[in-house]
Write a structure and sequence with these properties.
about 625 residues; alpha/beta; Glutamine Phosphoribosylpyrophosphate, subunit 1, domain 1; Rossmann fold; 3 domains; eight-stranded antiparallel sheet; globular; binds 5-amino-5-deoxy-1-O-phosphono-D-mannitol
């Protein structure tokens, strides 16, 4: 959570920082602030609410010109989202300004210490303490880099800190532990960001920092040291997406744009992963085939939407590989003392690659000597870096807080993993694997056809604008899709929405059915006859009790019309792949309904794109 930006160079720092914050606002939007180094003093402004509020303040009371600055957009952890708690925070004498992403766990004892030394702290945040400590260290003659080193040695928790010193306009200093931080490398200018979106319009050359490292940027260069002061090196890389990929491209919301990008995203996720005969090659999986043959249990860990991709993965992986596969919410995982051995493969799914709960679960698994394979969308992020292997989903930047193309490509990557394991272990025949690969290659066209019919979903959203509660039913791989459909409505439309396994209805949830209640029902393809027929029975049961049934069912499935108030047609695909198609109408519906209700679809209340605190 929280977006951070730093700049030093010839341009007006305020402009660079504000533009960077605009691209990072998806990370948090409770407040925003900027600090500049100008004529030996810190000039700053901060304001509760979205970045637009800060911009208004800046236009009414402009800050002086400056070419060194930092900025922050906040997702509140300690302290209410008000002006005082907004970042940047200043030291006692306003010599230092500092922004922070993460949580300083030992802030209470440090606060007591500096207050006892006569410092006056103004906010309720854990962050402000770091500004005061930095300033104290500077007053002993340390450079900002040296002061940062001293302060980091005292902090516990997860943090990215970025600071400027009024007496040294030549540098911005940043530090990271368990929290994201990348450096943008320009010519005669350098940048700091929570991710590359912060500086992508200025440079596509980036450097990722390791754990417990401090970076100092000046106009001339970038210097990295460890928290222990030893020289260190970041890893340079080239960002292969450009500014236009992070812009809305004519859509009203990033989310809608990202939904419509899904055919391309699926195709990219498959690119280079198989040869002409359908034989899979997953070059990035740095776990040897011998090791994969020894795997006797798979545990998928993830949160939110990524967890639902994991639930879909379980059905496919177990079916194709016959390896038992558990799926666990990452934040529950390590606390229940899971059984992990050297032959357990842990699959961590994360769009952002920065989700703290998932990261902590990965560390636990690796301590227990299990191998970890990440399915991730964000190149250079922490989760793939800390895993033994990675399958990148190649969905491109996902800006909307609600995951869409991230989710669809997570499922595709999980299918590829399952098929690859089946190929390596010989649990499926080559022609069977090739058939599924061929079917996956058809998915972009199928999804495109659903998108071409988006207007019907928009009309449905108009009809259901007054709904107070919506249910979603599915069976088998349709069950996680029901959960995902409900989550999308909760997070975007702020509506009560629940997803159920249709078989569970009679065990309780059917009591919720009342006349007019909208219920989305995902009908499995006819290939699995029992599943299909049982789902149709469930639809009849709820319809008999007055539910308004909205039925997602494959083309040409006869006999469903009489039980459906609305039919949403899905392409004919095999059962295991149906989620890739079935989720799309639910995404379109949620996006449209939230938009009609006047909500901010890209930045829903209380949420942040990357949940970098546990
Ligand atoms: O970046 P991750 O995939 O690790 O994020 C996991 C969840 O926080 C995320 O999927 C969240 O549930 C989304 N807002 C759902 O749309």
């Amino acid at each position: 959570m929280c977006g951070i930006v730093g700049y030093v160079g010839p341009k007006q720092a305020q402009d660079v920082v504000i533009e960077g914050l605009r691209r990072l606002e998806y990370r948090g939007y409770d407040s925003a602030g900027v600090a500049l180094v100008s004529d030996g003093r810190i000039a700053w402004a901060k304001k509760a609410g979205k970045l637009a509020n800060l911009e208004k303040v800046l236009s009414e009371s402009p800050l002086p010109g400056a070419t060194t600055g930092i900025g922050h957009t906040r997702w509140a952890t300690h302290g209410a989202p008000n002006d005082t708690n907004a970042h940047p925070h200043l030291g006692n004498d306003a010599r230092v300004a500092l922004v922070h992403n993460g949580i300083i766990e030992n802030f209470a004892e440090l606060r007591a210490e500096v207050e006892a030394a006569g410092h006056e702290l103004r906010s309720e945040t854990d962050t402000e303490i770091a500004a005061h400590l930095l300033e104290s260290a500077l007053s002993t003659g340390a450079t900002l880099t040296g002061a940062m080193q001293q302060v980091c040695a005292r902090l516990e928790g997860a943090f990215t800190l970025v600071a400027v010193d009024a007496e040294d306009p030549s540098r911005v200093v940043a530090a990271r532990r368990n929290s994201p931080l990348v450096v943008g490398i320009g010519e005669g200018e350098n940048f700091i960001g929570s991710d590359v979106a912060a500086f992508i319009e200025h440079t596509r050359e980036a450097m990722e920092l390791g754990q417990d490292q401090i970076v100092t940027i000046t106009r001339e260069g970038v210097e990295v040291i460890g928290f222990d002061g030893a020289p260190a090196e970041g890893t340079r890389y080239h960002v292969d997406w450009d500014l236009s990929a992070a812009e809305k491209g004519g859509f009203d919301w990033f989310m809608r744009k990202e939904i419509f990008e899904q055919p391309r995203a699926i195709a990219d996720a498959l690119l280079g992963r198989h040869d002409r005969s359908g034989r899979l090659q997953l070059d990035e999986v740095r776990i040897s085939d011998d090791e994969l043959r020894e795997v006797d249990k798979i545990i998928v860990i993830a949160c939110g939407t990524a967890f639902y991709a994991g639930l879909v993965a379980k059905y496919a992986i177990e079916h194709w590989t016959r390896i038992p596969c558990e799926v666990e919410l990452a934040h529950e995982f390590r606390y229940r003392d899971p059984i992990l051995t050297r032959s357990t493969l842990v699959v961590a799914i994360s769009q952002s690659g920065e989700t703290a709960d998932t990261l902590m679960a990965i560390r636990h698994a690796r301590q227990q000597r299990s191998k970890v394979l990440a399915i991730c969308n964000t190149n250079g992020s922490t989760i793939p870096r800390e895993s033994d292997a990675v399958i990148y989903t190649h969905a491109g930047p996902e800006i909307g807080v609600a995951s869409t193309k991230g989710f669809i490509t997570q499922m595709v990557a999980a299918y590829l993993l399952g098929l690859y394991l089946a190929q390596v272990r010989g649990t499926s025949y080559a022609d069977e694997i090739a058939r599924v690969v061929a079917e996956l290659r058809d998915m972009p066209d199928h999804v495109q056809r659903i998108l071409d019919g988006a207007d019907d979903l928009y009309a449905l959203a108009e009809e259901l604008e007054g709904a107070r509660s919506v249910l979603f039913l599915g069976r088998h791989v349709g069950f996680p899709i029901a959960l995902e459909g409900a989550l999308k409505l909760k997070e975007l439309a702020y509506l009560h929405a629940e997803g159920f396994a249709a078989g569970e209805l009679k065990h309780g949830p059917i009591a919720l059915i009342e006349p007019g209640l909208p219920v989305f029902c995902v009908v499995p393809p006819r290939g699995r006859d029992q599943l299909h027929d049982k789902m149709v029975s469930a639809i009849q049961e709820i319809r008999a009790r007055g539910a308004r049934t909205i039925v997602l069912v494959e083309d040409d499935d006869p006999g469903i019309e009489e039980f459906a108030d609305t039919i949403i047609r899905l392409p004919r695909v095999s059962t295991l792949l149906q989620p890739v198609a079935a989720v799309v109408p639910l995404q379109l519906f949620a996006c449209e309904l939230a938009s009609r209700l006047g909500h901010d679809v890209d930045q829903p209340r209380n949420l942040a794109k990357s949940v970098t605190v546990e």
